[in-house]
Specification:
CATH superfamily: Cytochrome P450
Radius of gyration: 25 Å
Helix content: 40-55%
CATH topology: Cytochrome p450
Strand order of the largest sheet: 1-2-6-3
Largest sheet: 4 strands, mixed
Number of strands: 8
CATH architecture: Orthogonal Bundle
Oligomer: single chain
Number of domains: 1
Structural class: alpha+beta
């Protein structure tokens, strides 16, 4: 017993320390009750966390905290708080939380999730150098041509709309970034890209990946017992092969004197000036390609889903487009200025089903004080966009899809609500982490929404008796950027005359396409040739 006596104070200290781990420190925003060691980890949602986060926001307020072990998460379901902390104090809130999954896959070089360090700043400077307003405007012809290809493919194979939305968004950013388009979805390189994207999205599911970062002991699990570690290493190999090949193709074209104005060509011409190493070039391209392909394709899948579920909104938008454009030509970008309801429909889609319902988390680099709360360094800051956009205090009947709300007020909020913290591009992030490709994404969305509503009716699928089947616009997959679960709908041309105009305009874009149809396999060349004929000749 005498030998054990000296150990009693130590044991007491260990017990006190263990009891303290997981507890909410004094000064933090309130939140759900914690338990020792775990904090709130035992109730952290494993999937679709934005629903539970929004439920907690209604209980604990627009700023509340969660404890995961000894680490802290502050959830902002308040647009003003997000603006004040992430926009106005961006010098200390632009970091990202530790993201071990991404570290294993990309070695910390992926711009979207990497820490706010010198490497990120170098890469961000390179992006802003090449992604200017002028540069975006110069890429408008290929965006318009790809929009025509999307419409033309919907005439040929409307049942493929789900994957065609992916092909379109991928081909646009692939052309812009690497000067090479993707004329078909099932091409090997395109399939490989979407396989990588799917695997990364699954690994990044917040309910799983967050726990690894907040309980570092999980990182010590041997690879043979940690399937996710093996998946990360496999994904890293796939990514480097894919993006290395695209970079190599661009470098080869430059050496042959066959440049076509892609962003990567500009970057390669200034790599020494911008101080870019090989990994930076590789992952800068990866970041742009993944962000541009994923978010835009999800948006258009949601577009088809929601429009099929809400025919009354579709009819109002079509009536407006018909008044502005008429029957004899397709819309052009400048037409949107005269389409307030179509603009409202686009904004309402962003609000109703935001692509990233929890945005991408930030992290504090220094202690912050806000509204009387103390926010320590290395706190994860999550902007709950879903909760903000579905707040009944801000939006009238927020679960209803209603574009008219953006005609009543600029922000779509109830009349009289303080909407000074809202901006149209809230969905593109905050502060120094705001998406640099937002102008490119908005341009693609605007062009296609007008084209598709002008040319097509989007309807629910029908049963054997021809009765419309219910459309579930709540059925979404998991992941960091959840997409609608695959679904069926009918997409039919509004008139034969409009179908012929779409075909004519698509065939007339041949010269624009040819500029980016480089490095195609014989099979792809044959496929392209078959699509460049009138439908009447098929």
């Amino acid at each position: 017993m005498g030998i054990l006596l000296p150990l009693i104070p130590l044991a007491v200290c260990v017990v006190i320390w263990l009891r303290g781990r997981g507890s909410r420190e004094k000064g933090l925003p309130p939140g759900p009750p914690t338990i020792p060691l775990l904090g709130n980890a035992h109730i952290f949602p494993a999937s679709a966390p934005h629903f539970k986060f929004t439920e907690w926001a209604r209980q604990w307020g627009g700023i509340y905290s969660l404890k995961l072990g000894s680490s802290t998460v502050v959830v902002l379901t308040d647009a003003a708080a997000a603006r004040d902390l992430l926009d106005k104090q961006s010098e200390t809130t632009s970091d990202r939380p530790d993201f071990y999954i991404a570290e294993l896959v990309t070695q910390g070089k992926h711009m979207t999730v990497s820490h706010y360090n010198s490497t990120w700043k170098t890469m961000r400077k390179a992006v802003t150098t090449i992604l200017t307003q002028k540069a975006v405007a110069e890429q408008l012809p290929i965006q318009q041509a790809e929009a025509l290809h999307l419409a033309y493919n919907l005439l040929r194979s409307p049942q493929d709309f789900y994957t065609e939305a992916k092909r379109f968004s991928h081909s646009v950013i692939l052309s812009v970034m690497y000067g090479k388009r993707a004329p078909r979805y099932d091409a090997p390189q395109t399939v490989q890209f979407f396989d990588c994207l799917r695997d990364m999205n699954a690994l990044a599911e917040p309910g799983a990946s967050v726990l690894i970062d907040f309980f570092p002991i999980l990182k010590l699990v041997p690879e043979r017992w940690a399937k996710w570690k093996r998946q990360c290493l496999q994904l890293r190999t796939m990514q480097r092969a894919l993006y290395g090949a695209l970079l190599g193709e661009t470098e080869d074209r430059l050496r042959r004197g066959e440049a076509n104005g892609s962003y990567m060509e500009v970057l390669l011409g200034r790599e020494k000036e911008l101080n870019m190493d090989e990994d930076m070039k590789l992952y800068l391209g990866a970041t742009m390609l993944e962000a541009g392909s994923d978010t835009t394709s999800i948006w258009f899948q949601t577009f088809f889903l929601v429009l099929a579920a809400h025919p009354e909104a579709q009819k109002k938008a079509q009536a407006e487009i018909d008044r502005v454009v008429g029957e004899d030509r397709m819309p052009v970008p400048s037409d949107l200025e005269n389409m307030p309801y179509v603009r409202a429909l686009i904004l309402e889609l962003h609000r109703y089903r935001p692509n990233n319902p929890l945005s991408i988390p930030h992290a504090t680099e220094a202690p912050r004080e806000y509204n009387g709360y103390f926010i320590p360094p290395k706190t994860m800051l999550i902007v709950n966009l879903w909760g903000i956009f579905h707040d009944p205090e801000l939006f009238e009947d927020p679960e209803k899809f209603e574009p008219e709300r953006y005609l009543r007020t600029e922000s779509g909020t109830k009349p009289g609500v303080d909407a000074s913290a809202f901006r149209h591009n809230l969905i593109f992030g905050h502060g120094r982490r705001i998406c640099p490709g937002s102008h490119l994404a908005e341009s693609s969305i605007n062009i296609n929404v007008m084209n598709l509503l002008w040319g097509f009716n989007i309807k629910p699928d029908t049963d054997a008796a021809g009765h419309p089947l219910p459309v579930d616009d709540h059925d979404y997959l998991g992941g960091l950027a959840p997409a609608p679960a695959p679904f069926k709908c009918k997409i039919v041309p509004r008139t034969i005359a409009k179908a012929k105009i779409i075909e004519r305009e698509y065939l007339a874009a041949d010269e624009t396409f040819a500029k980016f149809e480089v490095g195609l396999s014989p099979e792809e060349k044959e496929f392209v040739a078959k699509t460049r004929v009138p439908l009447s000749d098929l």
